[in-house]
Predict the structure.
Amino acid sequence: MARVAVAQSVPQCVHTTTNYTNVAADISGPADSCRDQAACLDVHVDSSTCVTATESGTSYLYCRVCILWSDARNCPKDVTATVDHVCAGDEVFYPGFISNAGAAPVMGVTNKTTGWRAYSADRYCQWARWTSTQVTTDVVFTVKDGTGSCLRGFVCVSTDDADDVDHCQGTSCGSLYANLIANAWKNAPLDADGILAVGNFYYGTDAYYSLVGWAQLAGIPASKISFATTPYDVVYANLNQYKVLYVPSDAYNTWGGITIELNDALISIKSKIKDFVNVRGGSMIVLTQAGFTNRYDPSTGRTISTSFSFLPTPFTYVPGDFYDATITSEMTKYSPYSTNA
């Protein structure tokens, strides 16, 4: 995804990215990994394409944003060959595909092009737009190469203790978490089954009640949930047999949630979790880990944070309170009736 900033008063210029961080790509073969594509793809924006147009009563600045690929930075792909296909975003990403200046975004349209050739003459373009108050906008492309199939899977990481009492249990929050679990289940590998839930989950606790309730609303019986309640259960679990890995809020925020010991066990299998999501195409839902931000480490005598440290790239977690929430357009794609009530 490229985030492009364009001023409303546009000087005539052509932008091509030059401040790259070089990464090691394959020596040869298809551009079928993030590293390969980072070495192959360039962004191209020509301000002479920018025009002002009105759509549905609102004035927008429209500009054409393009990508191209070449061998300028050790791209492994032979430039005499073609990349399998390129698309404008995907079927669900907001704001959708804009076909031309003055057009409205259309969801579910990818404008797929197969056999994508190298260099600027064959650059692939779509339109982006800004209102007079916007500084940036999102522009999304999908590039697929190689013989492998696109993976399934659905991942949601939340910093909210949504499973706590009187938060988003049951149908609260417009059934947001029931809908997220339904999407995680639907998009998981077809040959897998069940949810692996890592936490205390004592019967009747808020963490237990929330997960079971959400799953049942999603059409998933409680019998499909396996509870990993000890570090041994976590370390020796066969993740690949499950559709969904579920991590509740930490036990400091939600009764029955994940403990430090269980979180440390997840950290110890970080590579397995990475493969479960990135190779297997498994789904994962994670709730807040605010309680793990300030832990005393007796081995060093220092305070450390292990929040979300089982993810491939751990988050830098900064705790903070919020008193209201904004429903994003992306959220409505998965939970159309959610509100900020």
About this structure: The two ends are 31 Å apart (CA to CA). The CA atoms of residues 231 and 265 lie 5 Å apart.
